[in-house]
Design a protein that fits this description.
mainly alpha; globular; two-stranded antiparallel ribbon; about 475 residues
Amino acid sequence: MDTYRKRGYENEDVLPKTQDKRNMGPMNFFTLWMGSIHNIPNYAAVVGYLLLGLSPLNTMLAVLLGGTVVAFFLYFNGRPGTKYGIPFSMQLRSTYGSKGAKLPGFLRGGVAAIAWFGVQTYVGAAALTILIGKIWPAYLQIGAGNDILGISVPELISFVLFWAANMAIGLGGGGILNKFTAVLSPIIYIVFGGMTIWAINAGGGLGAIFSYEMSQTPSVNPVFGYLIIIASVLAVWAAPGVSVGDFTQNAKSQKAQAVGQIGSLVFGYLVFAIMAVVIVIGGTIRYGEPTSGNGVLDFINQWDSLPAILLATLVFLMTTISTNATGNIIPAAYQLTALFPKFVNYRKGVMIAGIISVLIMPWRFMSGGSGIIVFLNAIGALLGPIAGVMIAHYYFVQKQVIDLDQLYYDVHNQGKQKSAYNGINYKAYAATLAGLSLALSGQFIPVLSFMSDIAWIAGFMSAFALYLALIKASSKKAFADN
């Protein structure tokens, strides 16, 4: 490590993790991802899946298949991080080049992560406002209905409180996150297990639930319905899946991350698929379909028991914090560190990302039209092609071999020292842009609308295949010195 420091890599966060600093075993990965499955957006998505017209059983199977594909994607994309102890930013450099890695890294960590951190913090704050209002009704009257920068005073207070809770976990890094998720995981099983039992009773038994049809007329072909659900589950994990090296660099071994990630996500999605479908259908039978984007929170707020409402909502808030830390604030901090290693370390990166997430006023995104959502969806669609190129490059071009000595080349003498990873991998860029174009084509060409429904799959597969074709068709090296 001292050799790399002398070459200009003084920031500990971009250096390879030595074995003595790796502290994540199988159970750490299990609790980490378990806390990211059960959250408000995922349960709301299940409502949409059921409205496609698939039977409850088929919906469960499709969700489980999606979770299984995610599990293997995270495992395979996480292997370089564990083998070499390198973070996502350096894994990205090994694929796109030292200069080429900056744009996809910025889009992943500097744009999508920060924006979504703000949006998810606001969504959680909205739930916190309801929670506090149940306990203290006068809270909702603070400010006498006046707004500050487009947000009510109670909502602003809730936002600051929830933002602070998210920042505390983010500043603590992986160590605090591991402890937080270790406490959260058993609570999830208890609370959502109780909600499942409630839903079975509310829906008139499992027979009534499994025979219930939320959509009388199927809106898609069943096979394509499976693909839509699988692609949707993949899209949820597009960001943490691409940057999973930030976590697997801490894995004690490849076996630890394999057992931890595959086992946790397959088992986690099996449990989630059953619980979510039963809860959504049972609640729908009792109260009717959810009327807002908060999904099952609509059911929870209609319960008669205040303690049950408070407990269930609190757990949803905790899972939102876990998801926000895993998928947003931690990757954002690492990317800011990678982009500005001389000025930013991990903790400064968390603070910068957190401050920007407030300055962009995410509550305006949620109420000011769909433009920002379209933009962020486009960023999400880009991550499928990036993942396809990363997998193709590591397994079929590099043959699972990264030369750390060249990857961490001397930044003081980069004009004199030739490195296999210096410059830009233009073939990777071409494949990424082609994959993105195909994934988004359905937004502009009606006959290709199905491509946008499976954007992650379409982008991943097309970029993967095109990149390998470009490499095979050219005898020149992948990277171009610049």
